[in-house]
Structure prediction request, 72 residues.
Amino acid sequence: MTVEEFLKTEKVINLSQIAFKMYPNNKSANTYLISKLNGNDNRKFTKKDSELALSVLKDICADIRKLKIKPD
Prediction:
């Protein structure tokens, strides 16, 4: 599965938060990412977009791996 396919199909992931981390200087990052994933306005999800998304997803994964169970 590609990064693009994952983002299009995975419903557990909040795309809005992914988008704002991918494009931190874009106030409409969520709309921008959705447009790219859906091919709206001739926008394409590029290799660079895949790299940005994968980096964000890996950061999230690393944060999850650091979680601990609170002792009783």
About this structure: The chain has a mean pLDDT of 93. Helices lie at 3-9, 15-22, 29-38, 47-65. The two ends are 40 Å apart (CA to CA). Residues 22 and 53 are 6 Å apart (CA to CA).
